[in-house]
Amino acid sequence: MKNKTIILIAIIATGFLISCSDSFLEMTPKSIISNDQLLTPENAEGMVIATYAELGNDHYTAPNSLWPYADNTSGDSYKGGGGTGDIWEFNFMELFAFNTTDNPLVDQKWYRLYVGVGRANEALKVINQLSVEEYPEKTEREAEMRFLRAHHYFILKTMFKYIPWIDETVVGEAYGEVSNREFTDQELWDKIAAEFAFAASNLPETQSDKGRPNTYAAKAYLAKTKLYQAYEQGDDNSVTGINSSKLQEVVSLVDEVSAQYSLFTDFGYNFLWSHDDGSTESVFSIQRSVDDGTPKGRLDWGNMLNYPMNPEYGCCWFHIPTQNLVNSFKTDEKGLPQFDTFNDSDVLEGADFYNNSFDVRLDHTVAIPGHPWKYDPNFIYQKDWARATQIYGHFSSLKENQSPNCACFQKVPPFMASSKNTDIIRFADVLLWKAEALIELGRQDEALPIINEIRQRANNSTGMLKMNDGTPNSNYRMDIYKPGDNCDWTQEFARQALRWERRLEFAMEGIRFFDLVRWGIAGDYINNYFAEEKTKREYLKDGQFTEGKHEYFAIPQNQIDFSKGLYKQNHGW
């Protein structure tokens, strides 16, 4: 659907808000559309398009790139902006200790996700009442809507754990009877898995329209669901066990998917608009557009605050890499991560990036003073492009930002954005799910070539990382893991390598926090981060992660109130 005008024929209500009873809002409708009038293939197609459109309806206060909920909360990014009070709601998420059950932007994210669920449900209500004879696309469209509904539910599940499950069979007053505790933790995962399984069984292998998922995208998302489900949790959010049969399902599903995709030859291609079309690595993404007949196109509003403060951009310098993250790219004399010593000293600018050695992915991820911005050796990132340096330092985020010279770039005063697609799943992620499952199954030797494939691709991705004179941006030293030579490939070491690999590969992509929670290590990890990072960033002195509470966001108090107390709050809140 990229580069096509999307016309919304209806705004679909979710049914989750209680209607207002003020008389001045009561108006006599000028006309009424009957149910029979809606039951046409044309209207079904329009409602399907409206459901897809919701994927791109994000906003910088509730981005679908998920950076405030997964990078900002994991030690990978600072909120950034003009200071801690600039979108204070994200600052409260970052510090945990200050976050409350009535954080309005957490409530907004919940609401927007359920708008997506609601649109899928409304489309399914129409689709289900049409016959295959009158609507030949019926089964395929049902599969697409269940895929999109499951996508929204997956995010809701990882953010809030216990959520109300509302599908197209719930109508009218029945909305008020659905509890967020109707299903257990595992039963909710089963519900999500069933959606993706249906989609996998009923979607084609290829799609002519960009943005529509195929059977392999559904199988990939099913594998992701099974992986998360495998880490069984108690009511206090602690991991109580790892289900080996679920892990084996992950391995089998990834094997089915793997023949259909491949890694880009250069890691950086994933983050360039020019490589959206024909991508071999994007398994499922939100489609953006420009020059589509609308005033500004279908732009990435979710990341529009994340550009630096130089004249070519102008605002607003959010989503800033932490010093801890930058240090984590350091490598040792063998070209492997400095697992235990990476944070002993800070790399800040200038000679620091030549006196130490680094994983190549550093300069694809982090904008560093004196280094080219977005692969342009004539466009050098400067300290004064940063905003509140006394609070957040002077790095910037690179992956989601595009060059001001890109045909995808648009100014939306006072902000700016691009039509770069937003990857939800890329193939590198799928491969590392399999590696993770194999390691936890005690088959770490089978995981080794997968991790090495990811590392070797990164090591080969230096072609765009050059200064004007052809010298590399930083001192890169990487190697693959060679058991018996540079490492002992035990299960414990393999697990550490996998988790480190996931951090560097997906840094600043809105994933990290959910990994930490899945593994059951979020509490210790984040509190250790606060203990070290607060010596460098004073505002973090108030950061405190409470185990048994902060693994999930609170059920928004607004939603509990709307449910008249039917929804139950999460553990610890």
- The shape is globular
Structural class: mainly alpha
CATH architecture of the domain at 38-260 and 510-563: Alpha Horseshoe
The chain-level mean pLDDT equals: 94
Strand content: 5-15%
Unreliable sequence segments: 1-25
Counting DSSP E segments of at least 2 residues, the number of strands comes to: 14
Strand order within the widest beta sheet: 1-5
The rounded distance between the terminal residues' Cα atoms is 41 Å
**What is the C-level CATH assignment of the domain at 38-260 and 510-563?**
Mainly Alpha
Describe the structure.
Pfam families: SusD-like_3, SusD_RagB. It is found in: Cell outer membrane. Belongs to the SusD family. By secondary structure, the protein is mainly alpha-helical. It has a domain at 38-260 and 510-563: Serine Threonine Protein Phosphatase 5, Tetratricopeptide repeat. The chain is built from 19 helices and 14 strands. It has helices at residues 35-38, 41-55, 67-70, 88-95, 104-128, 138-160, 185-202, 215-230, 244-258, 323-328, 352-355, 362-365, 389-392, 427-440, 444-459, 491-505, 512-519, 522-533, 557-562, and strands spanning 77-80, 231-233, 239-242, 282-286, 318-321, 330-331, 357-358, 366-367, 372-373, 376-380, 396-397, 409-412, 415-418, 422-426. A two-stranded antiparallel ribbon has the order 1-5. The protein has a two-stranded antiparallel sheet with strand order 2-3. Strands 4-14 form a two-stranded antiparallel sheet. A hairpin with a 2-residue loop joins β9 (372-373) and β10. It is globular. The two termini are 41 Å apart. The model is unreliable at 1-25 (pLDDT under 50).
